[in-house]
């Protein structure tokens, strides 16, 4: 079980649970999360959703072995690949989503936060969007949402260079709601989720819709556009070199590609 889910007092908790691989996300894990988010939409027992990792690591992002050997494709029934189902479900969620981030949050580990409502991070959190470093391009509508949220130049630095940045910097540029110590994080997140769980669901739903509503169509459109480019780049030689270098524990060499 690489995703642990539980429902308690109105709070659905979705937890990354693959610590030996730094919570890297496989297709099966995306599917579990997509299913849980969709089921939450119609489950009156769920009033709030918490997405959490472990104190050591939130998630190392997409499983790179999956990227290499099983790049996302539509299912035989035409259903979108699990990662796209997950992104669609998180971006369409009508209930509040609270993220609890400690340690590394790489790639989709950071872009999924752009779809959460409250993002709490520990002082050890390290966010990173290393798409260009991997020969890829942004996903999860981050090429639209990040510049809007933090300004073009700051978004460009994060998306073009792909270097990791601290929880404190993420807070300062507006990606994180509050920074806490590792010891405080889980308790604080539980407390905030419990507060939301007893507020009127209709008010939360309408407030979220009013804040996000106008962007919804643009987000879907950008995700489709990014998805097309991403799928093409995933099987290109630049990405192959980056993934192989990761497993060979060396720096990639992109000098032969123009
Ligand atoms: N996909 C598949 N396996 C991964 C992984 C990923 N995204 N991230 C880490 N792992 C695996 C490593 O291969 C290693 O496996 P092994 O023990 O069988 O050799 C194990 O998890 C531990 O990773 P390691 O790199 O040794 O841990 P670390 O503490 O030194 O570094 C990270 C942690 C998250 C900074 C680092 O693992 C990393 O950069 N991962 C890749 C992140 C990435 O590029 N994701 C894709 C984003 S689009």
Q: Helix/strand/pairing class, anyone?
A: alpha/beta
Largest sheet: 6 strands, mixed
Q: What would the CATH topology of the domain at 3-181 be?
A: 2-enoyl-CoA Hydratase, Chain A, domain 1
Number of helices, counting only DSSP H or I runs of 4 residues or more: 11
**Percent helix among the residues?**
40-55%
The count of strands amounts to 10
Overall mean pLDDT score? 97
The radius of gyration over CA amounts to 18 Å
Distinct bound molecules = coenzyme A
What is the CATH-assigned architecture of the domain at 3-181?
A: Alpha-Beta Complex
pLDDT under 50 segments (min length 5)? none
Tertiary shape? globular
- What is the H-and-E element order? EEHEEHHEEHEEHHEHEHHHH
CATH superfamily of the domain at 3-181: 2-enoyl-CoA Hydratase, Chain A, domain 1
The CATH class of the domain at 3-181 is: Alpha Beta
> What proportion of the residues form beta strands (DSSP E)?
15-25%
Task: Please name the defining characteristics of this protein.
binds coenzyme A, delta(3)-delta(2)-enoyl-CoA isomerase activity, 258 residues, 2-enoyl-CoA Hydratase, Chain A, domain 1, ClpP/crotonase-like_dom_sf, EC 4.2.1.17, alpha/beta, globular, Enoyl-CoA_hydra/iso, ECH/Chromodomain_protein, 6-stranded mixed β-sheet
Task: Describe the protein's architecture and organization.
The protein is an alpha/beta fold. It has eleven helices and ten strands. Strands 1-2-3-5-7-10 form a six-stranded mixed sheet, with helices on both faces. A four-stranded mixed sheet has the order 4-6-8-9. A hairpin with a 2-residue loop joins β1 (3-8) and β2. The protein binds coenzyme A. Coenzyme A (COA) binds next to α2 and β6.
């Amino acid at each position: 079980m690489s995703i642990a889910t539980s429902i308690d007092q109105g709070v659905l908790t979705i937890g990354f649970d693959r610590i030996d691989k730094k919570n890297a996300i496989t297709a099966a894990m995306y599917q579990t999360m997509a299913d849980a988010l969709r089921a939450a939409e119609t489950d009156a027992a769920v009033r709030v959703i918490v997405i959490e990792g472990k104190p050591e690591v939130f998630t190392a992002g997409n499983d790179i072995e999956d990227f290499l050997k099983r790049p996302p494709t539509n299912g035989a029934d035409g259903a979108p690949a699990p990662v796209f189902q997950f992104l669609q479900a998180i971006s369409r969620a009508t209930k509040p989503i609270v993220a609890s981030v400690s340690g590394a949050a790489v790639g989709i580990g950071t872009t999924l936060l752009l779809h959460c409502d409250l993002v709490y991070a520990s002082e050890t959190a390290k966010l990173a969007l290393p798409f260009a470093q991997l020969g890829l391009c942004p996903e999860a509508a981050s090429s639209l949402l990040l510049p809007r949220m933090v300004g073009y130049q700051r978004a460009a630095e994060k998306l073009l260079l792909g270097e990791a940045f601290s929880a404190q910097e993420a807070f300062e540029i507006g990606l994180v709601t509050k920074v806490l110590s590792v010891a405080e994080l889980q308790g604080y997140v539980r407390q905030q989720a419990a507060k939301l769980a007893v507020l009127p669901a209709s008010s939360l739903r309408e407030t979220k819709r009013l804040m996000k509503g106008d962007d919804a169509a643009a987000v879907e459109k950008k995700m489709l556009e990014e998805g097309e480019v991403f799928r093409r780049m995933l099987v290109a030689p630049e990405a192959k070199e980056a993934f192989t270098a990761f497993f060979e524990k060396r720096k990639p060499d992109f000098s032969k590609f123009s």
